[in-house]
Amino acid sequence: MQASCQCGAVQFKTPIPEPLDLYHCHCIECRKQSSSAFGTSAIFPAFLLPENLPLSCYTRKTDSGGLMDCYFCTVCGVRILHQLQGKEAVSVKGGCLEGLDWSKAKHIWCSRAVVKIPENAQKWDKEPSS
């Protein structure tokens, strides 16, 4: 899939044509990061971004005590992706992807949701156990 930030300074292709999974996350951190009711993350196998992209990294602690590296464009400020240190997957932010099938999204951290989640949606109070 083709991915880019708002201004186009960061552009890359994902390693496979569609995500392994897609989540609407209702945790406080994702709500703040997205300035919305939830953040959307498309899960892909870990990959390296092209060199010389205008990126910066913010690292934060997770609820489980791990560290998450969060990459954003230094030109427009858009979050591009994040990766839990030590994991073999990355979460590309859904709004950065062209042609994403949003209908496949699952809801996580529903215990912190501020909007109603559809009854028929796959959902977890926290994170799925996998």
TrEMBL record:
UniProt keyword annotation of Isomerase present: no
GO molecular function: carbon-sulfur lyase activity; metal ion binding
Domain of life: Eukaryota
Keywords of the record: Lyase, Metal-binding, Zinc
Keyword Transmembrane helix: no
InterPro entries, sorted: CENP-V/GFA, Mss4-like_sf
Pfam families for this protein: GFA
Residue ranges occupied by any CENP-V/GFA domain in the UniProt entry: 1-125
Similarity comment: Belongs to the Gfa family.
Name under which the protein is recorded: CENP-V/GFA domain-containing protein
Organism the protein comes from: Glonium stellatum
Upper taxonomic lineage: Eukaryota, Fungi, Dikarya, Ascomycota, Pezizomycotina
